[in-house]
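Reposting from the mailing list since nobody answered there.

I have sequence plus structure tokens for a pair of proteins and want to know whether others read the tokens the same way I do. The first protein:
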Amino acid sequence: MAELELNVTVNGEPRTLSSPATIRDLVLMLGFRPEQVAVERNKQLVRRQEHATTQLADGDHIEVVTFFGGG
């Protein structure tokens, strides 16, 4: 069976991902630590505890914002 692809936009850049994929999969693929990001999917904030269960869909627009502590 052929692998399906998703075409999504991440922070304004088009990306092609293997399907199925979750927000957590995307965050890890981008090299971010899940506890240090906030994610919007189609202009709706996705709660961190829902990242692993929120499936991405073809055409989704994702914004990933990272948090860094300072001191």
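The second protein, same order (residues first, tokens after):
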Amino acid sequence: MPLKDGDFVLIEYALRVKETGKLVDTTNEEEAKKEGIYDPRERYGPRLVIVGEGRLLPGLEKALKELEEGQEKTIEIPPEDAFGKRDPSKIKIMPRNTFIKNGIMPEPGKVVEINGQLAVIRSITGGRVVVDFNHPLAGRTIEAKLRVIKVLKTPDEKLLHLFLRRLPPTIKENDIKVIYNPEEKSAKILMDEKALSIQDLQVAKRIVVLEAAKYLKDEIKELEFTEHIKIKTEKEKKEKENTTKQHIQE
């Protein structure tokens, strides 16, 4: 049965520019490293998508709705369903001094932020700078490989992945535990000692509360977060250090 709006799914994908074959986004860590687009701030591996949420390219989400768990598909996404068509009105000419006054040395190809918008400097002639506010991939056809890894069914699975996508990639799935009580429609999220090192943890919690209220309102009425810290003995600390050293040597 094809996916529908509101479904929680874990997907893998790779996006390439059709004309050049250049990889622009992927959920595969090794592929990202191999092609020079690896970002240590990114969480690689199967990615949570809530169908209809609008976090994917329109063309990619359209293709996703045609798939079932375990299926994969390769598609071409035209510019209008990818990063948009190029809009000539978004190309502006600005005085070079405007950049200098703001501490920016204009150079062709440089990405700059102007009034909260990202833009690419296309050329510099004398005191004039041609700035392109189109998305760098505007006008490009995208080739996408898409695979549905798993459809999440239970509230605890859904809540776990909602929380994980708001946390840094150093936090793994086994660092978080979700306990769900179907009778009370309550859930408790347990975090280990790694939670103490997470910046903006309270912000992440707040977002997850809002998302749970939006997407899981019929399944979860109460939500509790708990930092579950086990105080290790000196013996346990040494055992952990020895295990870490052994893994490094291997």
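Reply #1 (J.P.):
I read it the same way you do. The CA atoms of residues 103 and 131 lie 17 Å apart.
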